[in-house]
Amino acid sequence: MDELSGGIRRLTFPLPLGIPHVHCYLLPGEDGWTLVDTGLGLPGAEERLAPLAELDAPVKRIVVTHFHPDHVGGGEDAQALTAARVLQGAHDYEQCERVWGTPDWSERLADYLVANGLPEETASELRREAGTFRPFIRYAPDPEPLREGDEVAGWRVLELPGHADGHICLERDGILIAGDHLLGAITPTVGLYPDSRPDPLGDYLASLKRTIELAPRLALPGHGDPVEDPVKRAQEIVEHHRLRLDETAAALGQEPRTGYEVSVALFGEELDASERRFALAEALAHLERLVREGRARRGGDGSTVSYTGM
């Protein structure tokens, strides 16, 4: 547990994923501490959360920034060990239930990706992977809903969709508790998935514009080091996606191409099943943004979705 400016503390947990760690934050308050995010629900929760016992006051509430496994997966454990209230974005919890609360999510996701060109062999690997991973996603049920403009222990709730449809951040005195909305060393993934908002990249670009206008002086992200110049970083990510949109448009022609084929053109062939899922979802998010900008056309034969250039 590291102490940051303003009395904020940072807990860092290792992850068995492509990203090696996730940060959770403890915000001091008059009545106790607010824990932001919970990590993955791996075994050994008591040992993992033992640093909470070192605090000078109890954890009174737990805030979830978004429903991705490394942020929400340990929610049930953290709630049981602290007896704290759990708060989560209203839209985010609805999606959390649609994904992790339904037994057929992995099948629906695989079928969706196959319809966008993913080979069935790779889809079968994803189905098996989902079964292995799911026991570690134990989100806290029925959290108190948060919406834009709410306050939590003096922190303002901001809805900043993009990386996740219902992603929220907390802001106070120029400090942004950023979740995965803004990362320093890597670019947050933005993908199009079943039952998601139709234009996640458009949502994300709007959220980045809002971040630039808000002009926080510091962002504390879910992964990596603190972002010392959030405005500059948001501008860099906007530019990254401008270039990626141009690359995506250049991968299209008059012959229809599936999202999978475009993802291979953008990210190469040498990806494992999990990496390909993210690459395909990200390619689809960029393709749909191009459709809305009038730079691409969506089509298909009823069973497979395809795209052509304009």
- What is the helix tally? 10
Order the strands across the largest sheet as they lie in space.
1-2-3-4-5-6-7
Helix proportion: 25-40%
CATH class value: Alpha Beta
Number of strands: 14
Tell me what the CATH architecture is: 4-Layer Sandwich
Mean pLDDT: 95
User: What's the alpha carbon Rg, rounded to whole Å?
Assistant: 20 Å
Q: Segments where pLDDT lies below 50 for 5+ residues?
A: none
* Class from helix and strand fractions: alpha/beta
CATH superfamily: Ribonuclease Z/Hydroxyacylglutathione hydrolase-like
Question: What is the global morphology?
Answer: globular
What's the N-to-C terminus distance? 52 Å
Q: Sheet bearing the most strands, described?
A: 7 strands, mixed
Topology:
Blueprint: E1 2-3, E2 9-14, E3 21-29, E4 32-36, H1 45-48, E5 59-64, H2 69-72, H3 75-82, E6 85-89, H4 90-100, H5 105-115, H6 120-133, E7 144-146, E8 151-152, E9 155-159, E10 168-172, E11 175-179, H7 200-214, E12 218-221, H8 230-250, H9 259-267, H10 273-292, E13 296-300, E14 305-309
Parallel strand pairs: 4-5, 5-6, 6-7, 11-12
Antiparallel strand pairs: 1-2, 2-3, 3-4, 8-9, 9-10, 10-11, 13-14
Helix pairs in contact: 5-6, 6-10, 7-8, 8-10, 9-10
